[in-house]
Design brief:
Elements (H helix, E strand, L loop, with lengths): L3 E2 L10 H4 L13 E4 L5 E3 L11 E3 L1 E5 L7 H8 L14 H8 L3 E4 L7 H12 L9 E2 L11 E3 L2 E3 L9 E4 L11 E8 L3 E2 L2 E5 H11 L1 H10 L1 E7 L34 H18 L16 H5 L2 E4 L5 E7 L2 E3 L6 E3 L3 H10 L8 E2 L4 E2 L4 E3 L10 E3 L2 H14 L1 E3 L6 E5 L3 E5 L2 E2 L3 E8 L1 H4 L8
Parallel strand pairs: 5-6
Antiparallel strand pairs: 1-3, 2-5, 3-4, 6-24, 7-27, 8-9, 9-27, 10-25, 11-24, 11-27, 12-26, 13-23, 13-25, 14-16, 15-16, 17-18, 19-20, 21-22
Length: 452
């Protein structure tokens, strides 16, 4: 069934106190969250082929009661019971139950959040007030290609690319081995026009693509995907991928390494970058000696690992080979977890679908994704181009299933990154969104690549 707009009346969602476990902090006073509806929501089945699966409302919209006089401190107390509880192993949180029941996203509206610090307090309350594998921890960026600036504890600007530049659909760092489990956005200033955040469920995408382009899905499952990421030497203003190669959140020296970059020779700097690239590959299991003992053979993405090409201007193209389809930790269903949508969109928009994938206007590379080839392939190539009609079909289904989240002051959108892709539309006016990224180690450990 194709998704349709939600028109049902608002119903009362259980209070944070009711849905929380006994060890959680109870909501302050009688604060509850009321389910609301908006035309941008969708009704859809995640797995269309299953006649017994119910439709979900995607995303869930929640508004606090007494919103007109609710303080930030009261809000913070009210959401604490939704947080994960401390545990050495994975335990389902009330918030995760809500996300699982509504396609992986919750849009909190009518909140008294006005600053990055307000948003930070809200997110720390949702994270769980303890350091444990089952509570959320700060996500530390590695291999970052976008520019972000810190605004408050674990809050930074969202992608700082210009307002006219759309961003295609993607899981946050679905092109890497290092990605957060949760990503949240907060609106500190709404746009005049446009500026929606389209979201799409990754499980539904997998289901539709398997039915319409099965060869494409089968190749991703068997081989994985290759993403070629260009990292410039210096930051590039007004770019969606303009972060400097040598920044600590990219491939430069981290604060723990205590390295003075200016004291290194060009050869030493490149060696440091290359080791950081290999560290990223190892984080995804590349080079692990017990690959064959994990319940099946990993694809060509794992055999090939990461590689790179230094360019004459000192910048680098990094070839990141990753699975592309993973099993969702709690729902146990295959999810289309990758960045095919935005990388294909960039390449198409800039006229770079054909080699050498270089834009003379932007002075940058925008190659589309490709399939890694098995090591035994005798062609001499490492990667195989993906047929453009297959990526176009993936784009068509993405657009068909998307819900275009609209923003008002104080809104917070919380996304299960392992279940939902997000995007960005162009806008006019003073739109300002900030982002907060989190890892839940016990949850990430359950997010396994599909094995063949």
């Amino acid at each position: 069934m194709a998704p349709v707009a939600v028109t049902n009346d608002s119903t009362l969602v259980p209070t944070a106190k009711q849905v929380a476990s006994s060890s959680a902090v109870e909501a302050a006073g009688d604060t509850a969250f009321v389910e609301a509806s908006h035309p941008y929501q969708r009704r859809l089945k995640l797995t269309e082929s299953n006649p017994n699966e119910p439709e979900v409302t995607f995303p869930l919209i929640l508004k606090p009661t007494h919103a007109s006089d609710l303080t930030t401190s009261q809000l913070v107390e009210a959401v604490k019971p939704l947080a994960p509880t401390p545990s050495s192993s994975y335990t389902l949180s009330p918030l995760q139950q809500l996300m699982d029941a509504h396609g992986g996203a919750v849009h909190f509206k009518s909140l008294p959040i006005r600053t990055a610090d307000d948003f930070s307090r809200f997110m720390h309350a949702l994270a769980g007030n303890a350091s444990s594998p089952n509570t959320w921890q700060y996500h530390v960026d590695k291999g970052l290609m976008v520019i972000r600036h810190a605004m408050a504890p674990n809050v930074a600007t969202a992608n700082e690319g210009p307002p006219h530049q759309s961003i295609g659909s993607h899981n946050e760092y679905g092109l890497s081995t290092h990605y957060p489990s949760v990503i949240a956005f907060c609106c500190l200033s709404p746009p005049d026009t446009g500026g929606q955040t389209p979201i799409v469920n990754s499980i539904a995408l997998y289901d539709r693509l398997k039915a319409t382009v099965p060869t494409y899905v089968e190749k991703i499952q068997r081989r994985g995907l290759t993403f070629v990421i260009h990292h410039p030497v210096a930051k590039v203003k007004d770019s969606v991928q303009g972060n400097s190669l040598y920044n600590a959140d990219s491939f430069g020296p981290t604060p723990d390494e205590k390295v003075d970059l200016d004291s290194l020779s060009e050869e030493q700097k490149r060696a440091l970058v290359e080791e950081h690239i290999l560290d990223l590959a190892r984080e995804g299991g590349w080079g692990s000696p017990d690959d064959g003992q994990q319940g099946g053979k990993l694809g060509a993405w794992h055999e090939r690992g990461f590689s790179w090409t230094w360019l004459p201007d000192g910048s680098i193209n990094v070839f990141q080979r990753v699975p592309g389809i993973r099993i969702h930790p709690t729902l146990g269903k295959p999810a289309y977890f990758n960045n095919v949508g935005n990388r294909y969109s960039y390449s198409k928009e800039h006229g770079c679908l054909q080699p050498p994938h270089y834009s003379e206007v932007k002075k940058d590379f925008f190659p589309p994704p490709s399939f890694p080839l098995p090591l035994e392939d005798e062609s001499g190539a490492e990667d195989e181009p993906i047929p453009l009609d297959e990526m176009e079909e993936a784009l068509r289904w993405t657009e068909k299933l998307q819900a275009h989240v609209e923003w008002e002051l104080g809104d917070v959108l919380v996304i299960d990154n392992l279940a939902v892709q997000h995007a960005r539309t162009p806008w006019t006016g003073p739109r300002k969104l900030v982002a907060s990224l989190w890892d839940q180690p016990s949850y990430l450990a359950k997010h396994a690549p599909v094995r063949t």
